[in-house]
Amino acid sequence: MKKLIGKFVRNVRAIAAVEFALIAPVMITLFFGTIEICNALICQEKVTSIASTAADLVAQDSSISSTQMSDVFNALDAIIYPYKAASASVIVTSIILNSKGKPVVDWSQAHNDTAHKPGDSMTVPDGLITTGGSVIFAEIKYAYSSPTTKFFTKDFVMQDSFYARPRKSPTVTGPS
């Protein structure tokens, strides 16, 4: 019996195969996990880009029409590609100071969401809006779902927002 055990311990031909069989599932899991995390990070970067682009595009005009807002939303859908544009909800809002100096909605347009109502109170960082001026506020929510659903089994919401001051006039006149 001792000879048989000794012979078994000295035999090293199958060690590499056993080690590979033990480590392969871990390596495969790490590989696909890295791909999943990279996809999610790329999508989060696109969400941030959409927020800044939406506010920036609207802030470049002194007035914007419904047709122009549709063009802005179409451009934002192109940015999110190859991810599903239907999963993104974007709200672009012009915020002004009311007679009491409190920030309120002047106008708002939404894509795959509900716009804010004119006159609704908004929270804005102090000093961002000057008297007689306004700020364009873009907010986005994106329901991210994993392409493989192996590691991220549930959708999770990525969101971001961005403020931009109008460039050509103190306020941007919005769509009626």
Kindly describe this structure:
By secondary structure, this protein is an alpha+beta fold. It has three helices and four strands; from the N terminus they run αααββββ. A four-stranded antiparallel beta sheet has the order 2-1-3-4, covered by helices on one side. Helix 2 packs antiparallel against helix 3. The protein is rod-shaped.
Per DSSP, what share of the residues sits in E-state strands of 2 or more residues? 15-25%
Major sheet, described briefly?
4 strands, antiparallel
Report the principal-axis shape. Answer: rod-shaped
* Oligomeric nature of the chains: single chain
Secondary-structure-based class equals alpha+beta
Helical element count? 3
**Cα distance, first to last residue?**
93 Å
Order of helices and strands: HHHEEEE
How many E-type strands?
A: 4
As residue ranges, the low-confidence spans are none
Mean pLDDT: 87
Give the % helix.
25-40%
Order the strands across the largest sheet as they lie in space. Answer: 2-1-3-4
Write a compact overview of the structure shown:
With 176 residues, the chain is α+β, with helices and mostly antiparallel strands.
